[in-house]
User: Fold this.
Amino acid sequence: YGCVPLSASMDHVGPMARTAADCAILLAALAGEDPRDAATVGFRRADYPAALSGDLTGLTVGVDYNFHARVGVPDEMLALFDAAVSVLESAGARVVEVALPFTHELYAAVRVVMAAEAFEVHRTNLQEHWDRYGRPTRLSLSKGAMISGADYVRAARIVARSRGLYADALAGVDLVASPTCPIVACRFEEIGTAVISSAPLLTTQWNGLGMPAISVPMGMMDAPGADNPLPAGLQLAGTRGQDAVVLRAADAYQRRTGWHDLKPDRFS
Assistant:
């Protein structure tokens, strides 16, 4: 309630801040059932800041290296990721390999559902105020016009089926760790370009599954055409309703690293 909608069945509202600790404070204010919003769920709101112990003893983190290979995560990114996983281990977490099921099908299905629902929401405004949308946004939203009802129904079935498959596959872990994206953050002038638009964000499937996830900086990496190294992201996803566990892990990682404190030179 109070947010500009995108996808009715996928939208999840979450805070953005420099630290996981600040996100925990913001989420404590945002979370909980809202009688004005039919999409809220009945999970009991936790004391998110109190969960930030800095210790991950007793938590199990799953990693799917085969998935990373399938989506083309480069070696340089994997090196940063391995270093980040080692930090989680140093905080007390146990790391095991997992096999994420149905990954490509789920990714495609979520994108279809989101595109169709987003077009439905913004169709009138696109027709009447096309020039008020940024070019990348309006082009992305207008793709929904090409999705049929049959496409939408099949995609929604895949998403629903995947929830059970993922629940089974991740029954033995508390979190799943991965790079946030196979590429580093883009420069401002690259937003909306073909390279950036086609990059397979590894965040998409968690929206469809309704599982909480967070992205935190995990290092810097060279990128083609960039004058300086650019940030890479570590994603931590948890089981449904376990936002406090996700924040606890992200906070423990940030207590042991300083990537989130870096600022671009022009802001220093």
